[in-house]
Amino acid sequence: MKSIVTICRNYLWDGRVITNKPSLVAWDTVCRPKKEGGLGIHECIVWNEATIAKYAWNIEQKCDTLWVRWVNHVYIKGKDWWQYKPPQDCTWYWKKICDIKEKFKDGFEQRGWKAKNKQYTIKDGYNWRRGEAIKWPYARWIWNRLNVPKHCFIGWAIMKKRLLTRDRLNLIGVSQEKTCLLCERADETIQHLFFECKYSRRLLEYLCKWLKIKINNADQNNIWRKIGRCIKGRICRNFVASIITTIMYGIWRARNEALWNKAVPIPEKVWQGIKEDNKYRVQEIKDSRKNRKEKEWINTLYR
Ligand SMILES: [Zn+2]
Predict the structure, then answer these.
(1) Which of 55, 199, 200, 280 has the smallest number of Cβ neighbours within 10 A?
(2) pLDDT at 31 > cutoff 80
(3) Neighbour tally for 214: CB within 10 Å
(4) Long-range contact list for 184-190, CB < 8 A, 24+ apart?
(5) What is the pLDDT of residues 283-303, one digit of tens each?
(6) pTM of the model
């Protein structure tokens, strides 16, 4: 199981089975739901336990299967299942099931799975075992349906402050350079590169002019708060959020262009590309009476 987790983790961060590349975000966080700041990947060790816990539930519910009858006859022999301890000389898998039963014991009480006609689901077992974490405030912006997946991923890493900017590379000893590649005037940190740099401010200015809004202090919180306040309608807000994540992706691409090809793309051109990319995404929104007004507002931006 641990090897499977390692392969999944390596594939996520490097696209390979074996890698020395460090993970940007802890695996435990990656396995949280998107609304809690993760990528919604199942933590397979816990999922496996929740699957095995279903055997414990089958025994509790006295399901009429050959296997339940068999373990009752061979092992449990009429004893109370919740107090039951496996004998030393039993098989490995039976010990495992009994172990998992102990781990999920409280869950059976708290979620009422012991009740007659109450269905235990693996999903419910998994959610109970993982527990709930604090909600991540940017989830609705980053994971909105109009966003392109690769933009979502970079946006997620930025908002979690985990993207490998030069200040972090410097900290882990990979690079000695610290200066921003786009303006060469300050250290390259996430706050600088995406919100304070002359380059990113120029892109934000284009956006504000286009939407006829003002964003004075751009930072991780303010930018989204402003959109929530100034833009009316869910579709319009999602559309603007999609533009912002495309801008973030565009900045990261420009920075990488500067790093690898020693050329910084012209902001005006980048902005035109961002606008065009998102124009086609609007056409994917369903034409309904409810959506018409909001779609019309977006279309007027392109006239
Ligand atoms: Zn800069």
Answers:
(1) 280
(2) yes
(3) 9
(4) 188/255, 189/165, 190/158, 190/161, 190/163, 190/165
(5) 877 778 878 888 889 989 998
(6) 0.87
